[in-house]
Each structure stands twice: as structure tokens, then as C-alpha cells.
């Protein structure tokens, strides 16, 4: 039987969510009130902005807070009586994107070396399908997955294919999926398509450095788009609750 996870092994967003819940339970943050600005919370808790934002998403999933885009994060009434610890809702989205950038940034080198015309046609078809889905107002997630999975398969390494596919599919966990609802829209998907096109151009040209750079930039920008969606509107910082 596997050993139980110790408190030290809990993910940063879980521990931060627990801290925020304690403040709410103690009455520091009243039900119906807006939480302090992000910069104040990071100083109060001694945490990074990405981890704080992930913790807020976790609390929203649990029903403890409500994130109102452009307005702030508000304590929900039922949060005052909540004392349970935050459950595991998936890996940290920020850490996932960083892991993908490291691994896919290397595997794309092999894709450059082993790519064939049939691979390039397939990748272009994925991009075209993504554009069609966006035009229809649909998230092109499946064709996005196919694009990255095909690049992984072009490496010729089945272990890399499994790892990269598993990391991509982590976006279906509660934390990543809920964050996607806040972050993804037509503009963010259009930006992703443009980045996919740059990756394909580099890979088809067998430009190893260019492919590595564009892949890492794509995944770094994807991480920024996810977390930037939760940035507060500073114009609301001085408004009364």
C-alpha cells in the first residue's frame, strides 16, 4: 500500500487555499467582501502570484470565493463555515506548462531531424482545423492536442509521446479546466494558432534552434495567458466593498 501523502507534500496552491480559508473562518475576510489586492495577499502569505492565483481557482471550485473578472475576488457566504482542507484538484497549471516547455522544447529537436512531408501536412491540417473551430466559436482543444502529439511522435521516442500526451491531458483536471474557463477565448486561441504556425515553419525548415525557441515561447506564452486572465483590474483597487 502506498504511503499516505504528508502535509509537507501538499501542493503550494492547496496550502495557500488552506491559509485563505483560515483567514475567512477567523473573520478576517467577511462573507460578501472583496479580498485584498493580489499584491497585498502575496505579501501577507509570502507566496508567488502564480501560486496565489491557482489557490483562488481552487477556492472558487470549492465554492469559497467567486472570481469576478475585472472586479476582484469575493468571499461567498458559505465559506465562513468551511473548515476542510483543499483537496488535490490536479497539478499546478503553471508547473505543467513549465514542464511541457522543458520536455517539448527538447523533443521538437528530434521532430526537426525526423520529420517528413506527411508529418508537415498533418500538422498543417491540425492548424486549419483549429482555425475552423475558432471561426465556429468552439475551442479547438482536440486539434491542439493532435498537433502536439504528432510533434512528439515525430521524435521517434514512444516514452516521450506518453509523457507529452499525459502532460497535455492534465488540462482536463478540475484546476486546469476551471482556469481555462476564465482564460481561454477567441483571442487567446487565435494567438495559439499563430504560434503553432511558427513552430511548423521552423520544424519543416529543419531549423532546430528556431523550432526549440518557438516551442518554448509558445508554452511560456500559454502559461502567461492562463494566469494573466486572473489579473485584477487596478482601477477597482480603491473602490469600496
Q: Nutshell version of this structure?
A:
The chain has 241 residues and is mainly alpha-helical.
Task: Please give a handful of descriptors for the protein shown.
mainly alpha; 63% helix; disordered N terminus; 241 residues; 10 helices; Four Helix Bundle (Hemerythrin (Met), subunit A)
What does the model show?
With 241 residues, this protein is mainly alpha-helical. It has 2 domains: 11-89, Arc Repressor Mutant, subunit A; 93-228, Four Helix Bundle (Hemerythrin (Met), subunit A). Helix content is 63%, strand content 3%. It has 10 helices and 2 strands. A two-stranded antiparallel ribbon has the order 1-2. Helix 6 packs antiparallel against helix 7 (158-169) and helix 9 runs antiparallel to helix 10. The longest helix has 22 residues, at 93-114. Mean pLDDT is 89; it is low at 1-7 and 234-241.
